[in-house]
Specification:
By secondary structure, the protein is of the alpha+beta class. 46% of the residues lie in helices and 16% in strands. The protein has helices at residues 21-29, 48-62, 65-85, 93-102, 116-124, and strands at 2-8, 13-18, 43-45, 87-90, 110-112. The strands form two sheets. It has a three-stranded antiparallel beta sheet with strand order 2-1-3. A two-stranded parallel sheet has the order 4-5. Bound molecules: zinc ion. Zinc ion is lined by residues 8, 10, 12, 35, 37-38, 40.
């Protein structure tokens, strides 16, 4: 199936599904493609259509299983790196991170947890945090 965004002579745009591009060409030649708004048969593929179809393809591709596994593997690498090089401070993270941010003498790498509210407060203070999806190795 292929989705086209079609446009009639009066610039009405609408989506329509065809089994393939040949079907569209055939229906169009036989004058069977009509505008759903004004029934005009002067309908063309809109320039928009390749973009929309392309985007959907990219989305599907991004979320196929192989890619998720790869992303997970990368995230696990990041997690291991963080665990090795950063000090875990748990829910004291907002306090600790402020100490580091406002006290130039302190310089250490920490990681921990925040509530969404705490995170927002830190952002408002100009403290930019990196947020890493924390993945488990369990499901592999
Ligand atoms: Zn129309």
């Amino acid at each position: 199936m292929i989705k086209y965004i079609l446009k009639c002579e009066h610039k009405h745009e609408f989506e329509s599904w065809f089994s393939d591009s040949k079907e569209f060409e055939k229906l169009k030649k036989d004058n069977l493609v009509e505008c759903i708004f004004c029934q005009s048969r002067k309908v063309e593929k809109s320039i928009m259509s390749p973009n929309v179809v392309g985007k959907e393809k990219v989305l599907e591709k991004n979320f196929d299983n192989k890619d998720i596994k790869k992303i997970k593997k990368d995230l696990l690498k990041i997690r291991k790196f963080v665990e090795k090089n950063f000090e875990f401070v748990g829910d004291k993270f907002p306090r600790e991170v402020r100490e580091i941010y406002y006290d130039n003498k302190k310089n250490k790498n920490i990681y921990g947890t925040t509530t969404p509210e705490e995170r927002l407060e830190l952002e408002e203070e100009g403290i930019d945090l990196a947020r890493i999806p924390w993945v488990d190795n369990k499901e592999n």
